[in-house]
Amino acid sequence: MSQPINELTGYADYNATPEAKRVKAVAAALTSIQAKVANAPSNSTILSDEMSKLSTYADQIQEALKVK
């Protein structure tokens, strides 16, 4: 598993600042984007398409990691 994903295990660290939690979510989103881009080498627009969704992906990751 990639390093950014492994680092998410500390996401629920109540001492982590909101900024630190966001950095972890963005890192996880970038890892997902990297995997998608690597698996679609013939699609020349995929990187820009996926990068435009980065914030949305990070928001979704943060929401999914909230303790309910």
Number of helices: 4
Instruction: Kindly state the percentage of residues in helix.
Output: 55-70%
The arrangement of helices and strands along the chain is HHHH
Overall shape: elongated
Low-confidence stretches: none
Give the number of DSSP strands.
Answer: 0
What is the gyration radius calculated from CA atoms? 13 Å
- Beta content comes to under 5%
Round the mean pLDDT to the nearest integer and report it: 85
Main pleated sheet: none
For the termini, the CA-CA separation is 25 Å
SS class: mainly alpha
Describe this structure in words.
With 68 residues, the chain is mostly helical. The protein has helices at 3-7, 18-38, 46-51, 54-64. The longest helix has 21 residues, at 18-38. The chain is elongated and about 45 Å long. The model has no long low-confidence stretch (mean pLDDT 85).
Notable characteristics:
68 residues, mainly alpha, 4 helices, elongated
SSE layout and pairing:
Blueprint: H1 3-7, H2 18-38, H3 46-51, H4 54-64
Helix pairs in contact: 2-4
Q: In brief, what are we looking at here?
A:
The chain is an all-alpha fold and 68 residues long.
